[in-house]
């Protein structure tokens, strides 16, 4: 069975071109490609290292890659399943996947693809930069607390533990720089996939974090590529970031702090482009038309 969620059309120069459409299977970490010339499914890929997915599908502005990432963190060593919860920080990881697209067929080619290892937060919806933000990808996340529940044992429910922090983390990934690291061999191979380790991604400036609304669901890049809007399911506001501000903050290296895995966390006020908008009780999705 499958649980498909967020389809994405192929693009050229940041505009939809109607060649192919990709869709993720949230329940199983799979992705499918449909050829829009005949509306037939031509490929289904079981993406390595993903047990579930929500951060997809989104294509880069010229359909070089289609992106899909983990939702729930993945256990990195199956032989240690019995100690996964007591060693959550060490054994669990997320993965941001950039699947290379064959420009003639639209099919995904794993041998030209790569992943960026992520902290074991719960990665959510993603979007790809375009125009001024081309070369970057953005992923919401929640559960920066890294809670895993325990109400069956008399502890707190997952939802309580995962809602303690005032902010969750927007992931900012420089996938063009990640490409360079892959070409330079700064990867490890996990289940047949080239993976940039988390410590390398942090040290090389591939991955940065920006504080965002609590438990967000969706980050949407404006048609001009500069504005990113984020709504929080447990926060009544929509926050609008400026890519120009995020990029300036990254370049200045004036971080708020680093997370437990060494990933730089930017200052919230340095990255926000507009005053926060109060919008209903808890906006689930934001979307540009």
TrEMBL record:
Its main location: other. GO terms for molecular function: metal ion binding. Signal peptide: none annotated. This is NosZ. It is found in: Cell envelope. Keywords: Copper, Metal-binding.
């Amino acid at each position: 069975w499958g649980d498909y969620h967020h389809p994405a059309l192929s693009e050229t120069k940041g505009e939809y071109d109607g060649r192919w459409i990709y869709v993720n299977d949230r329940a199983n970490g799979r992705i499918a490609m449909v050829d829009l010339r005949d509306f037939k499914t031509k490929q289904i890929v079981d993406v390595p290292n993903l047990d579930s997915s929500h951060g997809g599908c989104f294509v880069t502005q010229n359909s070089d890659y289609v992106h899909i990432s983990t939702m729930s963190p993945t256990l990195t060593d199956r032989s240690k399943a019995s100690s996964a919860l007591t060693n959550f920080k060490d054994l669990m990881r997320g993965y941001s996947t950039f699947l290379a697209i064959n420009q003639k067929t639209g099919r995904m080619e794993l041998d030209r693809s790569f992943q960026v290892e992520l902290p074991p937060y719960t990665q959510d919806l993603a979007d790809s930069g375009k125009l001024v933000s081309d070369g970057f990808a953005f992923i919401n996340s929640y559960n920066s607390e890294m809670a895993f529940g325990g109400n069956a044992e008399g502890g707190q429910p997952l939802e309580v533990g995962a809602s303690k922090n005032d902010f969750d983390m927007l992931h900012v990934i420089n996938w063009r720089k990640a490409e360079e690291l892959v070409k330079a061999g700064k990867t490890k191979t996990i289940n047949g996939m080239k993976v940039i380790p988390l410590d390398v991604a942090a040290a090389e400036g591939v991955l940065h974090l920006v504080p965002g609304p609590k438990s967000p669901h969706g980050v949407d890049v404006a048609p001009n590529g500069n504005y990113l809007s984020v709504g929080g399911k447990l926060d009544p506001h929509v926050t609008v970031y400026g890519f120009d501000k995020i990029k300036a903050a990254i370049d200045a290296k004036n971080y708020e702090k680093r997370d437990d895995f060494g990933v730089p966390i930017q200052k919230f006020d340095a990255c926000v482009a507009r005053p926060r908008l109060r919008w209903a009780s808890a906006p689930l999705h934001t979307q540009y038309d």
